[in-house]
Amino acid sequence: MTLHVVSHPLVEDALAALRDRRTPPGEFRALSRRVSLLVVAEATRDLPTAEAGVETPLESARVHRLGGRVVAVPVLRAGLGMLDAFLDLVPSAEVGYYGLERDEVTASAHRYYDKVPGDLGAAATYVLDPMLATGGSAAHAIADLESRGARRIRLLSIVAAPEGLAHLEKVVPATDVYAAALDRQLDDRYYIRPGLGDFGDRLFGT
Ligand code: PRP
Ligand code: URA
Predict the structure, then answer these.
(1) Closest Cα to residue 193, out of 178, 177, 203, 182?
(2) CA trace torsion 143, 139, 40, 16 (10° rounding)
(3) Of 4, 45, 107, 202, which has the fewest beta carbons less than 10 angstroms from its beta carbon?
(4) What is the pLDDT of residues 66-113, one digit of tens each?
(5) If DSSP codes are grouped into helix, strand and coil, which group holds residue 176?
(6) Which residues pair with 71 in a beta bridge?
(7) Atom 2, ligand 2: residue with shortest CA distance
(8) 188 classed as catalytic
(9) Mean pLDDT (whole number) for 26-37
């Protein structure tokens, strides 16, 4: 497991407002999209391209287009806060879903829905889950994708905790993680500190 923390002044600025408890859901959604654009750009830096030709208004030019299959898999609900940014940058991506919910006491992730494209062996697969806390939800999604043949899996998050990274290292060590921030620790309710609270609730106003 390798962690890439996306270091950029625009990431810092968006994170500052995401962490602020006074930020209302509409603004929170816009900020999630903004910070996700920067995380997605970094995590897709090495996607394969294929050379092609186009006619500009003036002459022929050699160009490079995305050369392989890309699959984005948001973890419901909070992962939806990263999906628009992903599709802004990779409009041709296929999209799969995992519905996962943590038990409020044990933080153990329970799956209530999944719909994932098949034949993932050659695809670049990106799991979108903004909060990596215990790592139970992300590990569940990634292990299931591996069992369906996915080989090149990256987890895109906004805030990661050391405990979640350690869990991924143990359970799905081949995963690369891209995050906007690495925070200090989990608290006794398994929330990330300093964190930004419950991402899904803040995104959807629940
Ligand atoms: C949150 C968040 C992650 C998960 C992370 O989901 O969206 O999926 O917790 O925690 P973990 O690393 O300890 O598994 P939650 O279960 O609150 O559901 P929601 O997105 O529907 O609010
Ligand atoms: N899920 C969240 O939304 N926030 C946390 O701090 C931990 C898990």
Answers:
(1) 182
(2) 170
(3) 45
(4) 999 999 999 999 999 999 999 999 999 999 999 999 999 999 999 999
(5) strand
(6) 94, 125
(7) 198
(8) no
(9) 98
Per DSSP, 98 falls in state: E
pTM attached to this predicted model: 0.97
* Tokens found for residue 5: 């923390």
Q: For the chain, give every domain's residue range.
A: 2-47+66-204
- Is 106 tagged catalytic? yes
CB atoms within 10 A of CB 110: 13
* CA-based nearest residue to 178, from 19, 36, 76, 33: 36
Q: What is the DSSP string of 57-70?
A: SSSEEEEEEE-S-E
Q: Considering only CA atoms, which residue is closest to atom 10 of ligand 1?
A: 133
133/18 Cα distance (integer angstroms): 17
Question: CA–CA separation, 152 vs 168, rounded Å?
Answer: 15
CATH number at 2-47+66-204 = 3.40.50.2020
Structure tokens at 139: 């590990």
| Annotation says 201 is catalytic | yes
**Spatial distance between the Cα atoms of 145 and 168, rounded to a whole number of angstroms:** 14
Ligand nearest to the CA of 137: 1
